[in-house]
Specification:
The protein has ten helices and ten strands. The chain is an alpha+beta fold. It folds into two domains: 151 residues, Jelly Rolls, CATH 2.60.120.10; 107 residues, Homeodomain-like (Arc Repressor Mutant, subunit A). Keywords: DNA-binding, Transcription, Transcription regulation. GO terms for molecular function: DNA-binding transcription factor activity; sequence-specific DNA binding. Pfam families: AraC_binding, HTH_18. InterPro entries: AraC-bd, AraC_XylS_family_regulators, Homeodomain-like_sf, HTH_AraC, RmlC-like_jellyroll, RmlC_Cupin_sf.
Length: 267
């Protein structure tokens, strides 16, 4: 990235309502900032250099970019450009159809390929000529996440059969008191073999993967339903509300009740 950098607000405020979808153009001056929500940047016209946590690349017709919340990033475009930008929080990264969270997948790769379906979504968003947040923000975000989850499932099918079986078993059994031994049996492999394959193919242990899936499902249910917290705890495999509270506080630094109040305040 060029040396001359325009410093913007060090910690931008969360938009009043997420998800938020906008058409945006960027100046040639390189800017650096961060924000507490995640961001997906998709190309419509032109290209933009962007660097996220030390990983640099170009958003253009071939690839988009994902900026995790809290990460300092630099960006700038030397030519006239037009982008579709989605501001979105953690809870909205979970598919309503199958409960799969795609947040980790995006966070691990930063840049991702523009598929024909993504180009169609960009064209759909660009057809709205309004300024500011587009009226289809929530519906568009749902389509984006569902398409991402579908791609993740297809990618999972291309993984080793053992890991694919394990992930599918976990998704279908989040409400059950799962153990790594039970997951290994469902995958037809030893516990040690399961651990090795998860680390090699997913970069995470089976138990950590299970914990992340339960956390993501709980956050989605807290925001998107009015179910009592103790029922959500049971649905996501925790023995009671206290167990869910401890898990969310450890994983996200927030209690279920506080997270639900925060979501209600944005609506």
């Amino acid at each position: 990235m060029p040396e001359a950098i325009l410093e913007t607000q060090a910690w931008s405020e969360r938009p009043e309502l997420l998800p938020k979808l906008e058409r945006r153009s960027y100046a040639s001056a390189v800017a650096r900032h961060k924000h507490d929500f995640h961001q997906v940047v998709l190309p419509r016209e032109g290209a933009m250099e962007i660097e996220v946590a030390g990983r640099g690349g170009v958003v253009n017709a071939a690839q988009g970019a994902f900026v995790p919340g809290g990460e300092v990033h630099e960006f700038g475009s030397s030519d006239p450009s037009d982008f579709i930008v989605l501001d979105i929080d953690t809870s909205h990264f979970t598919s309503l159809r199958n409960g799969i969270s795609v947040l980790d997948d995006y966070a691990h790769k930063t840049f991702f390929s523009m598929t024909p379906r993504l180009h169609l979504l960009v064209s759909y968003a660009a057809s709205f000529k309004t300024t500011g947040a587009l009226p289809i923000s929530r519906a568009w975000a749902t389509l984006f996440i569902e398409d991402s989850a579908r791609q993740l499932v297809e990618t999972g099918r291309r993984r080793s059969t053992r890991v694919g079986r394990a992930c599918l078993f976990i998704e279908k059994s989040l409400a059950e008191p799962l153990t790594v031994a039970a997951i290994a049996r469902a995958a037809g492999i030893s516990e040690r073999g399961l651990h090795d394959r998860f680390q090699r193919e997913l970069g995470i242990s089976p138990f950590a993967y299970l914990t992340e899936r339960r956390t993501a499902r709980a956050l989605a249910l807290l925001e998107q339903t009015g179910q009592p917290i103790h029922e959500i705890a049971v649905l996501t495999g925790y023995s009671d509300q206290s167990a869910l509270t401890r898990a969310l506080r450890k994983a996200r630094g927030v209690t279920p009740a506080a997270f639900r109040r925060r979501c209600a305040g944005r609506s």
